[in-house]
Amino acid sequence: MTASLPSRAGIGLRAPHYRAVLDDSPELGWIEVHSENFFDGGAPLVMLQTLAERYPLSLHGVGLGLGSFDPPDAEHLARLKALVDATRPAAVSEHLCLNHAGGRYANDLLPLPYTAAMLDAVAGHVARAQDALGRRLLLENLSSYLAYPANEMGEADFLAELVRRTGCGVLLDVNNLYVNQRNLHVDVAAFLAALPADAIGEIHLAGFSERDGLLIDTHSQPVHAPVWALYEQVLARFGPRPTLIEWDIDIPPLSTLVAEAARADACLEAVR
User: Fold this and answer.
1) Fewest Cβ atoms nearer than 10 Å: which of 60, 62, 94, 174?
2) Is residue 160 situated within a structural domain?
3) Taking the mean position of all CA atoms in its chain, how far away is CA 179?
4) SS3 breakdown of the chain: % helix, strand, coil, rounded to 5?
5) What InterPro entries does the record tag this protein with (predicted)?
């Protein structure tokens, strides 16, 4: 059993801001880090343990690839379990993506086909990972730039059925949903209606870029106005949820992330 993340806003903590957060302890609801950055232990892990004593912690994985046909790598799972045991996070999440096959890995978060066969495989992977970790996982919806012609269901229906079968939760990335609405004409209202409200354990907000009319989930800018508007729609549907500001490229001063988190906190307060 672990504590839950508070229904407040936090930030994705990246290396340029480690020292400032350690020294200044800014007012934040919680922090999230990429799990794989701390697999090797040492000074980074000691720092993370220190921060975990000050803030609720979320571990967000980018490498497990639970949406692959092949099962999750046993060594990766073991290293993630060791990190969970060392830091006792309030939440652990993974992208619902395809990233490996036949022992070969792609350095990307690739979309998977939403078919009955894929659902059976992924449900087994999620159950295996949750058993290994001894806890519930939150799975994140992806930003996509193509849809498989063989899809038999939508992403939200796929996620909802995974929740039903495995007891996992959902990390709802609002920026990804907006990107898919623009790029793939996803019906946002239907997407949100398909997700079980009690499964939403975390929300992500980030900034996108635009190239030749295509929106790219770059995490390189402030949260855009239409994403804030969609976030308010999400909160109206699900109520307050722990919300993260993500920024991974062209990272600004810490004060910029704290200000974005404060804006998210104001949105959360408005629906309490």
Assistant:
1) 62
2) yes
3) 15
4) 45, 20, 35
5) MbnB/TglH/ChrH, Xyl_isomerase-like_sf
Q: Identify whether the C-beta of residue 59 lies closer than 8 Å to the C-beta of residue 84.
A: yes
Which H or E element spans position 100? strand 98-101
Give the span between the Cα atoms of 94 and 35, in whole angstroms: 9
- Mean pLDDT (the chain, rounded): 94
Tokens 């058993």, residue located:
131
Is beta strand 243-245 parallel, antiparallel or unpaired with respect to 214-216?
A: unpaired
Percentage of the chain lying above the pLDDT 70 cut: 96
Closest CA to 58 of 164, 135, 154: 135
Domain count, the chain: 1
- Is residue 18 in a domain? yes
Whether the predicted pLDDT of 2 surpasses 80: no
Domain span at 221? 9-270
In a domain, 3, yes or no: no
**For residue 71, pLDDT beyond 70:** yes
CATH of the domain at 229: 3.20.20.150
